[in-house]
Amino acid sequence: MKFSVLHVLPRRPRKTKEEMGAVGHDPVEATVLSPVMEGSAKTVHGRFRHKLKMPQILGFVPRPRSPKPIVESNPPQTEVVLDFMENLKENRLVEACQQLLLREDQLFGQETMTIEGLVQVCNEDDKDTLQKDYETLLLHLWMAVHTTFSSTPSGEHLEILRSAVETIRLLEEKDQQWEGRPEGSSEAPVWRPHQCRHTHDNLLEKIVDSQMRNATVEEDNISVSSVDNLSTSMKREVCRMGKCLKEDVLRVARDIRDCYPPDFDVCNLYVRLYHQKFSARLTELARSGLDVDDCNYLLCWVNNYYPNDILKHKDLEGHINMESLGTLLSEKDLTTLEEQYLLQKESKVRTWFSKALSKEEEGWLSGKSPELIDGYCFCPLAIDIIQAVDGAMREARTILGSEAKAQRILRQLDSFLISYKSSLEEFVKRTGENTQAVVKANLVSIEQFRDFIVRREESIPEEIRTSCMSTLADLRDCGYGYFTGPIHEELRVQYHRLWTQAWFTGGQMVLDEVLGTLDRHMQQFTDLKSICMEELLGRLHMEMMVEYVKRMMKRKMRLKDKEQQEAAAKLLAEDSSKLSTYFTEAGSKISWLSEVLPKMAEVVRLQDPGSIQLEIVTLARDFPDLSWRHISALLSLKANLSTADVRSIKESLVENRPTVTTCNTNPPFFSKVPAGKTWNMCRPACICYGGRGYSSQD
Q1: Residue 349: which of 404, 285, 403, 416 has the closest Cα?
Q2: Integer Cα distance of 315 and 319 in angstroms
Q3: What is the dihedral of CA 646, 651, 656, 660, to 10 degrees?
Q4: What is the Cα–Cα distance from 357 to 419, expressed in whole angstroms?
Q5: Spatial distance between the Cα atoms of 337 and 464, rounded to a whole number of angstroms
Q6: 661-678 pLDDT tens trace
Q7: Taking the CB of residue 360, how many other CB atoms lie within 10 A of it?
Q8: For 409-433, how does the pLDDT look when each residue is reduced to its tens digit (9 = 90+)?
Q9: What is the DSSP string of 116-154?
Q10: Closest of 682, 689, 695, 612 to residue 656, by C-alpha
Q11: What is the pTM (predicted TM-score) of this model?
């Protein structure tokens, strides 16, 4: 290789060892190609690649090549800062507002000293521009709020609303800053305060008014819905308004509420606005003179649909204050409508009852026997009336929203029972082939009415309940008396033989005859319903016991000595057992009646005055309606009892009666038993038993 073609460049300044990259060697002068070899690196390299070799120069270390920079496939994008109008276009209301607030701070934050003091240095053109930009921002802000109900809620729509609400909060804070500036500070801008919160609430009121007004418009081009099937225009209007109210407030609770901070209390705000609009319109309708049907429908909304289906909806729970809303109608307007409803409902119920009773009476008088169901005579009257009452009460509770107000309809049941009693009393006076069957069927109805009143005891006002039960007691006496009267009439002759010498000497034959006659009569009641049969047997049981004790106290027998008294007591106990066995086996449920005769038999049997005294006190404890007249008649059977003994027994009873009467659980019995005159003896004209005065005639 010829070195003559190479030119040596001037020596460069000596570099440090670190720069050279080699330790302990001096740098060597660098060389370059001669002009003959100049050209592009590629050309030179290509031309002399196999012809030139660089001589190995002692101490020369080649400099390492710098690595090529690595270019990232996705370089980070530079954040683009939007200006005010661009932010508005993107609905970035908060960012746009913050830009205006910054400009306001910059514009009104520049102050200079003058003779008068600190004054702001503001460019009027800048102020005008800022004011126009605020107006533009507010326009977008109120548009975002105004479209709250204009479309189906979506994430984008709710985000814009959320941004609008946050913007309102920022503008409100700025208003407060300006209002709280120190005295002597520079004057606030002409656009302050914005009062966005106040404007927002007024806008919501207009939105609600528009929503409710549009809801009342009947459109001909929409498909038929349940609303359009309502019979009157008033019903359709009220239904549309109520439906709009419900849908909107539920939308607020489910979606819109989350766009507002808690201090806005947006759920209560919307519900209050809708309540006011709905209330105002319903008040106008209530005072317009509604017919019965429209009146009922309006009351349904006021007392039922609105408070229960809307305000108590689970999605509103915990978000609204129902107590602060009040009622949709004033007390006066509501009372007027409710009175109109009750009057027409009472009239309708009376008509139902009258038709049902008239239809039943026609069947009675036609001579036809009532139908048999499950083998017993049946009358549908009670079922029809009870169903009518239940239906009317259920409707009244729904329309009036109150159990107490609905109870007024029950007065018609009381009136009906009185009419029913009169009709049945007149009918049983007639003699017809179907009379017995009709009475049996009506006894079923009477028991059904009674069961209805007893089961509803707590929900029926006391005055109405007492009157109904009294009328039903008369009806039961009429119906059951129709059968028991002839039985007792036939038994009257046999009753007269009780507690006579014939009874005493004839043993048990008298009572056997009585029960034989009774058993023969009972065969006619195979088609009587079991519950009525039980009541009939109970009445016969009670009435026969009363008749037996009455005959016992007629004073036709005087038992002279111990033997006679013990014999009579034995007969008395046997009669008691026979009566109790018969009626218990037949189906009577009055088990306590079996205690009466054994206790009286013990008084007859005992000889010791002290024991008699104790037994009398026990008898008075179990039967507080036992009067001195009854006791005197009972003691008169014992001919060997002295006047002093009787007086001692009486005094003991007077002393102990106030304490013994508190333990009684038995129903009255002796008050049904007439007793003769009191045994002649020296006693005060009036003695107080347990706080009550009894004259010598008691």
Answers
A1: 416
A2: 8
A3: 40
A4: 9
A5: 24
A6: 555 567 899 999 987 654
A7: 24
A8: 999 999 999 999 999 999 999 888 8
A9: TEEEE---HHHHHHHHHHHHHHHHHHHHHHHTTTSS---
A10: 689
A11: 0.71
